[in-house]
Amino acid sequence: MARQKGKYFGLNAANLLHSLRCRGGSAPLHTIKFSNVAIQSLLDQKLVKLQNTGCGFVLEINEEK
Description:
This protein is of the alpha+beta class. The chain is about 35% helix and about 20% strand.
């Protein structure tokens, strides 16, 4: 059975997006303290993208629309 999203799920994704904007648009993935579900939701909506820097991954706001 698929797990249902909690009532605060949308708020967490919005908070993550706000946090990225406050950090200049990107942050190393290992420093992000949000749930994997919130991160995956923003990736699915194509609001953010992952970059492999060779030393780790960076989550950044997707400027392409």
